[in-house]
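Dear support,

We are seeing what looks like truncated structure output for some complexes. This example has two components. We would appreciate it if you could run it in full and send us the complete token output so we can diff it against ours.
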Amino acid sequence: MTTQLRETDVVIVGLGAAGGVAALPLAEAGLNVVGLEAGTWLDQRDFAPDEIRNNYRDWPMLVKKAEQERPTSRATSATRANQIGGHPMMNAVGGTTLHYWAQSWRLNPWDFRVVSETERRYGPSRIPYGSTVEDWPFGYDELEPYYDRVEREVGVSGQAGNVRGNINSRGNRFEGPRERDFPMPPLRWTAFHDRMADAASSLGWGPFPGPAAINSEAYQNRPGCGYHGFCNKGGCPINAKNATHITTIPRAVDTGNLRVITRAHVTTLEVGSDGRVTGVNYVVGSNEYFQPAKVVLVASYTYENVRMLLLSKSRPYPDGLSNNHGQVGRHYFSHHQGAGVSAFFPYDLKSWYGLPAQGVAVDDWADDNFDHADLDFIGGGNLWVMSDRRPISAANMGTYGQSRNWGSAWKRFIHEHSDRTHGSYIQKTTLPYEDNYLDLDPTVTDPLGLPVIRITGQFKNNERAIAGFMQDKMEEWYREAGAIEVNRGGLGNTMGASTHAYGGTRMGDNPETNVVDRWGFSHEAPNLGVLGASVMGTSGARNPTLTSQALSWRTAEHLVDNWRDIAE
Amino acid sequence: MTDSNRRPPAISRRDLLRTAGAAGAAALVPGAVGAVREETPETSPTASPGAGPAASSSRAETAPLSSGPLANLTARETEILSAMIDRLIPSDDLGPGALDAGVVRYIDRALSEAESDAADAYRAGLAALDTYSRYTREGPFIDLSTVDQDSVLIDVQIGAATGAGVGFVGGSGSFFNMVKSHTWQGMFGDPQYGGNVNFVGWDLLDYPGVRLGVTPEEQRLLEADQLEPVRRSAYDYGMFG
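Here is the complete output from our reference environment:
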């Protein structure tokens, strides 16, 4: 028996990085907002610095909805998809921002204009074969005010490299112009960071500290980072990580206009005969509810956004909501973060205390920051060297041929070398392709019997060429800093489930190739908005969360400014 | 196989394990029992790196975890698992190993909790390890010399421990990797879960310990090799219930 609830102005499905940000401008504008969140509230007492719990037993995930909906994946449509590995996202108020790394980059201007800039500089033949990449419907300048707003509302620390055209080489000289500095200075560096920065400088590169949604000093009545070393997949016990459950969501609740419903598992959206969305169906335990709304914003991460639309079949949308052009699930890609490089040093790095967002970045080989005329790819990668080590992971380090990985000889090896290895993090330009996509798996279902998402995706020649190029650069950097051994991973093949999953509901002016318009609203169902990286058409070479949050703020503001047109 | 391959400490340890198993898997693990000391973390929060169990503080709360009957493993399984993890991280002149760290108890508890799905794989894998030893080294695993034990474990690790009646579920390599992964968790994880008794795993790594905050001065001391390690469980900080 479904309980019919009273209509509200806006329903947001998922209160994580994106929905948790969009709630604030909506609530501040006086709209009545219901936030449906599959997880629960968690707080700093839930975030013990415990490696077993965080990194081996998949905490924090009190509610394991995402885990029960793990996508299947396969490289091509010629192979069978398997459900392997865990789901990288979590369910809670604040979502994955509770335990993410919190690197909070703006995309660089090139990322918004990959097609036109590539054609202008190198000619049209340089767009990789089979890619469906388009320019964004707007440029970096359009998003700059929203980046600026979110950096302040959420709290981002960093070193500016370009303030209104004034280049500061202590920051990223390749970034787009920003209106003003970050609200906080960057996180501190250790002696190892200094050493790596010096090595980069001696190669003629421009090292700089990266941006993080982590307090480097007291901000909004919460303390600066403690550098305790358990930030990677861990919540913050001192509330210095600016997850939305302690930033924008409580401020939205304080307006009196946001009602948060926890343990609400949304299944489908309902549609009227006119093609407009009328509300959402959700379950709490065994109770079923229908929440009517004038506007629905889906903000439940790329896989679930696409899945909910594909599951919401109706007479106006027989192939799934907003899918009459067959674009839901298309233009999917997961960020190429693999093809890692690790190094072995003849000295202790003293990296037991720190966090993934505390690092040295090099952007010289990212985007179109270097000449590609004689190269066989477009785009590039961001090199990132961080301080992140915990005891179990340290004891699992590679032995670089010096011993077996167990036994007495290993014990002596690890005693001497546990603090002497380092793994870099290299994020690479990843493009959408015609034959990489999401759809519903034909056989695998969740506990409600609903099909999970199937990923069909493979890194192509462009991504693999970047990977090899970046590995060369990373090895050069490590060697310059004194590394005595360097290991490389494979160049990458199948795109598995990822924390950086893009597309599936791409944003663009052309409804034939995009699901949502330049404001984030459906080309087909005008009162349906989509929040999150599923609207992004390019990845850049850096983490998606801040861009996703800036877009969410912009979509919410557009809804407030055009309420009558969209909602009535 | 000759007796010269048998190091005396290994023999006595093995005999000790047999006794433990014969007693019904209740008594356990040399070094893990009776090492609890009076100091509280508040009065003795630190220990010298590498100084071993005698110099480490430990919490009274760990005492119940390091004794008492096991819940999942039988006496025979306990003997075989103990012998295996004693080769993975041996007790030797560098200091305590996996047995001293309470890894058997860590694994037994994990099989009741987060790793309950692995119980069958342990049951089958430990039996298969013993069967493979009998087939190829002419004795049960726990009676082999350490050299032969290591040789068997290499076969198991690389997935080569096959043959009629050797019933590893999903291949011997996945059994080895599972036990190794859990052994590393029990040796180097938080002592709250029954392993890393007396912080012997963290001492082996010179891990400076769990803190809620690290000041710039503390980081500087760490870089100068002057930071005193902290030896506390995360749960010794009162806020985590």
